[in-house]
Amino acid sequence: MRFLMLFAVLLPLVSGAVLPLFRFRRRQRERYVFAAVCAASLAVLALLLHGPAGTLRLFPLTSTLIVALRLDGAGAVFAGLVAFLWPLASLYAFEYIKHESGDDRFFAFYTMSYGVTLGIAMSDNLLTLYLFYELLTLVTLPLVMHSRDVRSVRAGMKYLCYSIAGAACAFLGLMVLYTLGDPTLRFVYGGFLPADGPRRTLVLVGYLLCFFGFGVKAAVFPFHGWLPAAGVAPTPVTALLHAVAVVKAGVFAVLRVTFYCFGPAVLAGTWAQHTAMGFAVFTIVFGSAMALREPHLKRRLAYSTVSNLSYILFGITLMTPAGLAGALAHMLFHGVMKITLFFCAGAIMYKTQRQYVPELTGLGRYMPVTFAAFAVGGAALAGTPLLPGFLSKWGLAAAAMDAGGTLPLLGVAALLVSAFLTAGYLYAPLVEAFFPPKGAGEHGLAQAHDPGLLMKVPFFVLMAAMLALGVGSRGLLALLARIAAGRW
Question: 94 and 30 in contact (C-beta within 8 Å)?
């Protein structure tokens, strides 16, 4: 089973890299990409069903630093999310991209990004994660710049500069761990630094370097600016950037360094924990407030992502098993909810060329499936009971109340404020679409309709998934609690 990890990582990487060598017609290319993506997802499913498969050593860099793969509980959560959503995103992309140029280039990097993201999820140690993390920047940059216009190039350069700066900071934190901790940098639940070790100030500075360095991809304030700018990319790209690959890689890396490298025993109660948590709490409210005032639909959803990523960071920085369980739950649920909302925004732009909330007037009547999916996703993200967003937010708030203290309680207040703001910025497009003002014209809407089957199938699957997660997550939440307690 260990070699199945290598298969899951290498198959999309190699399939994407060699795709431009073939002169596929559109249908042939779609079958090729979908087969590679589904095969990798089935490999991940087999790994999840089998359980821990041991460590697969790939090659050494030094006598102690080994590039290796291993799937533990936290990695299984991330890998499972990616494996579920990527085939759906691929189906969606087949229809969305067919009228754009550069299809081979797009799907080459799109497929490679899947393998790299799985590499992050299955990394055995911080060095391996860091290598895949850097590679993710390189393979997603051409996707951000796919349109090759001035705005896309500027957004790509902004994304690159932020990512390089963040990776440099994280590397300094990595060197602190290498010098003062385990030179193998292997992930161990609870961390591998002694609680009473030397040079404590350097350790705490190293943690913040990792938190903010990896936090760049998690869009923590003030390093969030690249994320709304990246909305110029095609919607299949932004959906994965904001819901699955890049941003979740950022929070996953923060999770790893917090619980599996530095360790809560070293960090809890220190100024480093308070600093990290303070920025997460502020970003929760800041992102929601920015989303409420943003009229552009995709940018509104981008700022929503900024806020919700810090929900996860807040749970991580509580540095308790309950906080980690809430963070894992929101990482999973947010991925499903947010990719649905971005798919809806993309379908609206694809069929009507409308991008701003005031332009959605009366559109719900003509695109019922699209706006039904938006309604379910929006209600879930706003924390409506019987939907998954409510469960993860409740878990985070309960964990913060159990932790006690000023900052955790401020975090609960931030969650409540953000919930009201989220309802405002997500229900406003629905009111505009389904309840237009009396006498509002419907000029230009006669030709509007839902997208084709390849884009609608993901809508139905994701709506079903949100409803199932909302009412049937008891077993899943129990599993996440076991993972958060280090029992897998």
Answer: yes
Element (H, E) at 18: helix 2-18
Residue of 183, 325, 190 whose CA lies nearest to 259:
190
Find, among 414, 236, 388, the residue nearest to 313 by Cα. Answer: 414
For residue 449, what pLDDT is reported? 79
User: Which residues make Cβ contacts (< 8 Å) with residue 94, sequence separation at least 6?
Assistant: 30, 33, 34, 454
**Cα–Cα distance measured from residue 320 to residue 68, given in angstroms and rounded to the nearest whole number:** 28
- Rounded to the nearest angstrom, the gap between the alpha carbon of residue 64 and the centroid of all alpha carbons in its chain is 31
Q: Which residue segment(s) compose the domain that 405 sits in?
A: 268-488
Is residue 481 in a domain? yes
Tokens encoding 134: 């850097």
What tokens appear for 45 in the block?
Answer: 């499913």
Instruction: Measure the CA–CA gap between 126 and 68, rounded to whole angstroms.
Output: 10
Q: Is residue 129 part of a domain?
A: no
Residues counted in the chain: 488
Summarize pLDDT for 394-409 with one digit per residue, the tens: 999 999 999 988 999 9
Q: Is 453 exposed, middle or buried (0-12, 13-18, 19+ CB in 10 A)?
A: exposed
Structure tokens at 235: 């919607």
Q: Are 72 and 58 in contact (CB under 8 A)?
A: no
